[in-house]
Design a protein that fits this description.
7-stranded antiparallel beta sheet, 4-stranded antiparallel beta sheet, 314 residues, alpha+beta, elongated
Length: 314
């Protein structure tokens, strides 16, 4: 899948049109203004159309010029000029190699970037499969050889352990039942996988890996852009809902938008993680039972569904 930058994810959010913001390239600039005759020169708009919006120039030559706010009636629709409330730019748009790129947001762009980081490192994942040649032990430290999987910090990241017979692309892979053959365990804050009986040969670990954070505008991530975008929006709205009371706002609007964002996020999670999409993954037991019992979820575990409600089911 194509890679994405932090800027591209923000642009995709703006392209959804519900924020009322936009992104573009300035056609002129001065110490206290930014002009865009391409997107902003629309006679008939109110001077308050972008009042108090954040004017974000993430690639400004001077870091002190990145964030400004449009004044309450600081938009001139007939000329496409935005007036900010200061301080003056040390280097105006299009000066000193600046590209003139800008974004307009009703929310603080720093909070959007924080939500992006939380989404990237906590809500979207890649599925990893690593083959391990066992050495006869019954317990293996996950971060040490022969496992050496330092990115696994919790047993909940491990979806499946399988025995591998032969070599790819013609290997035979058989899952080993959780608890009957293997289990993850913590010992003095160190994660281990214990086996009984002891495995021999090659085993395959299937697990979820968080993406590395991005704190600049040019580094790319391999995370699916739409999945990451909806996760970012959910994280942003969740924070705004929690803060609404302190700010004297109603939280209901944020709650409604958050639920919609979560449903879209959950659909993408299901698409990319498939049978591993559940927030709590417990592999289905492979052994047959002598008594007939209903199948309740994955081995009886509850999970968080697309409507953010705990549910039980297949």
């Amino acid at each position: 899948m194509p890679t994405s930058t932090r800027r591209q994810v923000r642009q995709q959010l703006l392209d959804r049109d519900f924020t009322g913001g936009l992104y573009g390239t300035a056609t002129a600039g001065a110490a206290g203004t930014l002009t865009d005759t391409t997107l902003l020169q629309i006679g008939g708009h109110a001077a308050s159309r972008y009042g108090n919006f954040y004017k974000y120039r993430p690639a400004a030559v001077n870091a002190a010029d990145v964030y400004r706010r449009v004044t309450a009636i600081g938009y001139a629709p007939t000329t496409g000029v935005l007036v900010h409330g200061g301080p003056n730019y040390t280097q105006a748009p299009l000066v000193g190699g600046d590209s003139g790129y800008y974004e307009l947001w009703p929310w603080d762009p720093r909070e959007i970037n924080h939500a992006f980081s939380r989404a990237l490192t906590e809500r979207v994942f890649s599925i990893q499969q690593d083959d391990i040649t066992t050495n006869g032990q019954s317990r293996y430290e996950v971060s040490a050889a022969p496992f050496s999987l330092s990115s696994i910090e919790s047993g909940n990241q491990i979806f499946d352990v399988s025995r591998v017979l032969g070599t790819e692309p013609n290997a035979r892979v058989h899952s080993l039942p959780l608890n009957d053959v293997w289990r993850a365990e913590m010992d003095n804050d160190v994660l281990y996988v214990r086996f009984d009986p002891r495995p021999t040969g090659v085993i395959r670990i299937t697990w979820k890996k968080a993406y590395a954070d991005i704190t600049d505008e040019t580094t790319t991530t391999a995370a699916d852009r739409a999945w990451l975008m909806w996760a970012t929006l959910f994280e942003l709205l969740d924070a705004m809902e929690k803060r609404a009371g302190k700010d004297g706002e109603s939280s209901q609007n944020y709650a409604d938008l958050k639920e919609r964002a979560y449903n879209r996020y959950w659909a993408r999670r299901q698409m990319f993680m498939r049978e591993y999409a559940s927030q709590l993954h417990v592999p289905r037991p492979r052994a047959r039972s002598s008594s007939s019992t209903p199948v309740m979820g994955r081995g009886g575990s509850s999970r968080l569904g697309g409507n953010m409600q705990t549910m039980v089911g297949p």
